[in-house]
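Task 17 of the worksheet. Students: predict the tertiary structure of the chain below and write it out as structure tokens. Keep your answer in the requested format; marks are given for formatting as well as content.
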Amino acid sequence: MIKNNGQTSGSENTANLSRHLQQAAINTPDLLAVAVQKSHRKLLSSPSKRLKTDSLFQSLFPLALSYQEISFSELDKRSDKLAFALNQFGIKAGMKAVLMVTPSIDFFALTFALFKAGIVPILVDPGMGVKNLKQCFAESSPDAFIGIAKAHLARKLFGWGKESIKFSISVGAASIFGATNLTKLVKKYPVNKSVYPMVRLAEDDMAAILFTSGSTGVPKGVVYSHKMFEAQISALKNDYQITSGERDLATFPLFSLFGPALGMASIVPEMDASKPITANPEFIFAAIEKYQCSNLFANPALIEVLGQAGTNTAQAATTKLPSLKRVISAGAPATLSSIERFSQLLNEGVEVLNSYGATESLPLTKIGSTALLTTSEITDNGGGICVGKPVNGVDVRIIAITEESISQWHSNLCLPNGIIGEIVVKGDMVSQAYYQRPSATTQAKIADSTKSDGDMVVRHRMGDLGYFDDSGNLWMCGRKAHRVETESQTLFSIPCERIFNTHKAIKRSALVAVTRNGIVKPLLCIELNNAKQVNNKTTRLQLFKELASVGEQHQQTKLITDFLIHPNFPVDIRHNAKIFREKLAVWAQQQVASQATKGNE
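Model answer:
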């Protein structure tokens, strides 16, 4: 059982993620731990050096890049000082602290300081929306709020955590809205001890609360234990073969924290991590080249952006990233075309490792791009997306689709290979509970076995559907909530959509259910590559006829004969890939009702 408020579950207290930083500071004190990229304008001294830009201002004042750096020894000492200051300020072990700080040296130092002090960081995705953020803070009841000026402004405007927050700290700005400035706080509480006495906890104790993005439902706080973090570090070492001394171009804050824990430098580009599609590819390419990064973690949206920029035919040659020996992609299924395009930037033999998982459990499976690209024919014919084989220490099973909770695991729940069902996982990197969400925990968790100390081991229901092939590869078929059940057949989102996505006019599609005369029917919402080419009734009807013909060729899509063109799919900000099918379903039902009304007039 995961405990909080300084209480442990009874096992030996030896766990703390920060021990890895301390070890790196001992083993490689002078090695680079973190570098943060910053852009700024500078005046060119010679007109002959002006860049070809769209404006005189940009020509005279082009963007220049600089970097803030810190070594492992300096980061360890900095986090020690912050841990001492937080304690003297009143924030103690067992308390919870919201951390809303942009990727920076302060972000790394603060996170490790919180871990060292046994203070539970609460991490949220700012892109989830104001309403969801307020709900997250109400559920997690933080004792402290540590954030940049924008975060404190929002805290005040929207009343985030006003019932529970007792301590406020501002980062990178003067004291604001009653918050104490971090720099002043450290100066106010100088310490005589050189090393902070790191809090040692049981491996199952709560280490952090990470909220899901809410892209497929209401955001929920996932309780991370120290065991989960340790298992993720082990997977990165063993399954992804990351070694000390490497340099990672880190585009996702949580993953970037694993850098110092692995003895790997985290190079943070200037970008909005919550909106990777807006990243400047030149900044990222520049950081990779400057630090000769060997690893890149990028979600599918960023893979697409970088691939497009690096293979731009207007350039003299394709951009090359020869220092990279590994690229890790996670968060959503990447399209095969974007992976193939991005792979042109890499040396021969360097793969894009696609990982499957979720906030509740990551990584679970992986597959290299070489093997993945051979599955395109199966995917295009409705076989789902191959996400590879489970990583070491993860047990993945498929059970029958049901909305009912399952209290106890037993082996006869498992389905045979080739049958689509819900994906269920077990392993040390799998979360055991949601924070303050007992009903969600009951729905998503299945009790499996009891450990010697009396704690229960659980399996997690992913809410995703899939199946195993006879080679042990897992194939994803979409979210359980996105399936469409008709009187004669159940249709699954990814297999059906990928069949229609083969049509050259289709950018992406989304399967939804609509009701006509009391009968549930499947309908396909489509977003076009070029809406101007289908701008009248004749061309729309021709397109729909072609799509119906495509659907007739496959058993799983024969029932799909209704199509609607949507101008711009609602998608999540972070991945730009997770389609909000729930919103599209409401829109489609309104369109169907409107058509029925016009038909009756």
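Marker's comment: The chain is about 30% helix and 25% strand. The radius of gyration is 25 Å.
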